[in-house]
Amino acid sequence: MSRVLVIGCGGVASVAVRKCCQADDVFTELCIASRTKDKCDALARKLEGRTRTKITTAQVDADDVQQVIALINGYRPELVMNIALPYQDLTIMDACLACGVNYMDTANYEPEDTDDPAWRAVYEKRCREQGFSAYFDYSWQWAYRERFAQKGLTALLGCGFDPGVTQAYCAYAAKHEFDRIETIDILDCNGGDHGYPFATNFNPEVNLREVSAPGSYWENGHWVEIPAMSVRREYDFDQVGEKDMYLLHHEEIESLAQNIPGVKRIRFFMTFGQSYLTHMKCLENVGMLSTTPVAFEGHQIVPIKFLKALLPDPASLGPRTRGKTNIGCIFAGEKDGRKKTYYLYNVCDHQACYRETESQAVSYTTGVPAMCGALMLLTGQWKMPGVHTVEEFDPDPFLDALDRYGLPRSENRSPRMVD
Ligand code: NDP
User: Fold this and answer.
1) pTM here?
2) Which of 40, 336, 338, 363 pairs with 311 at a CA distance of 20 to 30 A?
3) Is residue 314 within 6 Å of ligand 1 at its C-beta?
4) How far apart are the first and last CA of the chain?
């Protein structure tokens, strides 16, 4: 019997809410709150009569801490699921602390305005000291550790697929398969085709910022940064086939480097088609990926926000997308004195996801883990006051829940390794 507040009602939140309603013995009451209340109402109407979960809706601007506090105090949830954008992570965490409520999200904090001088000073110091230049990192949210711990509250960070399930796969490998993990390669393959020359599978602003940034990986205790898209490999993915993939910076590398003892190297690869890359490079070259406002005919316009308005809404890709995703981790290390390799992954079918939730697999593979993470917190299977990432918790009940709610794991005990 739990009351949960979901903030955000985009592609990922819609899947998470539908999945929560499948577990209506645990998620007995749900409030869906977002900037645009109409979207919350539309989702609530679709679920009417199909679940025992009692759904209400609300309008909130989650950039405003006072509004979130008022919403939480009015609804009194046990958990706030932040499935809005990474820009709202800190305001929602502040509100949870003020109201004494547990918190979770699916992506680590990133500022909306990367030209803000106060943020930039901290960012530039971090770039110099740590050696990676992504706009997002965990330091902002790890700074809340003591305050959450002191209040006996749990904050679960990054509980989507990657970050999220990939870290649970690492915790599982460390618990059951290896005495020592030496290398981890996280492989994110989207073999789906939506038929557009160019579209992003989730929020275009967040997606394009991530992909156009320099890549980096963790090796022998420090970060190695490389120019964007400069390391390419081919890999033959189960049920998808041969794809080009590129080394990217990704947020879970940062926490895994701290939480997997003795790990020597962690890399992250994502597949991209040539058409996507050519479009992205062109947009970048003409300045359309910039987050700095430009004056245009008397208005201030942020180029990447304008681009977002032109691109297909990720939510509209669902009915058009065919093919599968394959996301997982390849490990090398030692067990009982012997060298071994191991690959743990999930394959997800875009059309099957659409039939079940009216969303394609990218939203599905994020929304289902968000719901399963919430399930772990609400049922007390994961309870650890403080601010934590997924690999810090017991992976077993979480992976069991994923198997049950639509993201079953597959394994390969002699995988082809990535050179
Ligand atoms: P969408 O853009 O589809 O949805 C975002 C939602 O947040 C919208 O409903 C939007 O409202 C709402 N929102 C934005 N700003 C505010 C605000 N100030 N106050 C209240 N609501 C707000 O994004 P996605 O669903 O694709 O992504 C959701 C999150 O999931 C993102 O943080 C993304 O980075 C993360 N993600 C994580 C992945 C993982 O594997 N871990 C993979 C994919 C995504 P409105 O409708 O008004 O715009």
Assistant:
1) 0.95
2) 40
3) yes
4) 49
